[in-house]
Design goal:
Layout (H helix, E strand, L loop, with lengths): L6 E7 L3 H18 L6 E4 L4 H7 L5 H9 L2 E6 L15 H8 L4 E7 L17 E7 L12 E2 L4 E2 L6 H20 L5 E6 L5 H15 L5 E6 H10 L6 E4 L1 H14 L9 E3 L4 E3 L18 H18 L2 H18 L15 H14 L9
Parallel strand pairs: 1-2, 1-3, 3-12, 5-10, 8-9, 8-10
Antiparallel strand pairs: 4-5, 4-11, 6-7, 11-12
The structure holds adenosine-5'-triphosphate (ATP).
Length: about 375
């Protein structure tokens, strides 16, 4: 017997978010139906630059309430460089939501999709499978809206707390344990700048404290500048990485470049009570409305959502739905003929959606990747 229907808070946001959300929700529903689960209830909610223009509030109370009430939150992309607060800053409610719901672990899986060649000459660069975990509630982003500026000087302060660091490191070690059970090496690398900043030396001490209660996992260390180089030179050496908010922001775009671009990179922002699933990219105003967006990162974020829900609801059928959607993405790109516009090809939202949807229909539930 299948479980009660899920309730999803759906925030399409701005720009290409408006184009890639509906196809993603349809694929999530199709995957649920195929594994015998009831259709999820969809609660479409307003947030972003469009909401700010229309309602004077980029993250209305009803939206926050809808997110709190949902089983999971699927968010596309927000922001529009043309729409700004009176102080000139951009509208970034997706970051406000991370603070509001305490979504402290920014999970950025870096997995090569077979059929999509990465930019590295070494063939190992086409078989990447590591995870970058970005602390998402403090670090340099603690300064958002709080920095100072005079005629002569501006400051933004990086804040690293024991609580904030311990919980994200704990998350990373647990993730490494789960991955080790699936055959990965079982390592967590602290990416920091412990040789220069007090806040980062403190981060590393807390990381070491957490490592002591996860003896099966090997702790490793890298300074962020050196790690940036290694992520280009030999990214296959990494298993799980955990890092400060701003470093994670930068390195996750670098990581997206390794697997075919922002349109291929999914992400999740996970807390103890709530989780948001959102592609790594922004609203891409330069291509919004042209149909050129690659919706794959959004689809893979939908798959991550189903996988997380499987754990939360203790429902293995949802994990099967997640694997089905992920395998459908792999199959759509497998023969190399589907090339997104960001990689110089012709395929945009419609072509990629049709290919993934067709692949999802074709995959048998007995397929070993889905079982
Ligand atoms: P944010 O700061 O909100 O993350 P950003 O300003 O870094 O956003 P994006 O909106 O992510 O920028 O866009 C960066 C570039 O990548 C743009 O040229 C955009 O067109 C391209 N891009 C982003 N996402 C996609 C996508 N899904 N498909 C194709 N191109 C994309």
């Amino acid at each position: 017997m299948s479980a009660a229907p899920l309730t999803l808070a759906i925030l399409p946001g701005d720009g290409i978010g408006m184009e890639i959300t509906q196809p993603c929700v349809e694929l999530v529903q199709a995957a649920l139906a195929k594994v015998g689960e009831p259709a999820a209830n969809e609660n479409w909610l307003e947030a972003g630059a469009g909401a700010y223009t229309k309602l004077g509030n980029a993250l209305p109370h009803e939206t926050i309430a809808g997110c709190r009430a949902a089983d999971a939150i699927l968010l596309a992309a927000m922001g529009d460089p043309e729409v700004r607060y009176p102080d000139g800053t951009e509208i970034i409610p997706q970051i406000d939501l991370r603070f509001e719901l305490e979504l402290y672990a920014g999970v950025r899986p870096v997995r090569s999709v077979p059929g999509i060649k990465g930019p590295l000459a070494d063939p190992r660069g086409d078989q990447l499978d590591f995870v970058l975990v970005r602390e998402s509630t403090e670090g340099l982003f603690a300064s958002v809206g709080k920095g100072t500026r005079t005629q002569e000087e501006a400051t933004d302060t990086q804040v690293v707390t024991r609580k904030g660091t311990a919980r994200v490191c704990e998350f990373a070690f647990r993730l490494a344990e789960q991955r080790k059970a699936r055959g990965h090496v079982g390592e967590v690398t602290s990416v920091d700048k412990a040789n220069v900043f007090k806040s980062m030396a403190f981060w590393r001490d807390v990381f070491d404290d957490v490592a002591k209660s996860h003896r099966e996992i090997t702790p490793r260390y890298g300074y962020v500048d050196a790690v940036a180089m290694e992520m280009v030179r030999r990214p296959w050496i990494y298993d799980v990485m955990v890092t400060e908010n701003m470093y994670g922001d930068i390195l996750s775009d670098l990581a997206a470049g390794l697997i075919g671009g922002l349109g291929m990179a999914p992400s999740a922002d996970i807390g103890d009570e709530h989780a948001v699933f959102q592609p790594c990219h922004g609203s891409a105003p330069d291509i919004a409305g042209t149909g050129k967006a690659n919706p794959t990162a959004m689809f893979l974020s939908g798959a991550m959502m189903l996988e997380w829900l499987a754990g939360e609801k203790d429902n293995p059928a949802l994990a099967r739905a997640a694997r089905l959607l992920s395998a459908a993405v792999d199959d759509a790109f497998a023969d190399g003929t589907l090339v997104s516009t960001e990689r110089g090809g012709e395929a945009g939202v419609v072509a990629i959606t049709n290919a993934v949807s067709g692949a999802l229909d074709q995959i048998a539930l007995e397929d070993p990747r889905v079982k």
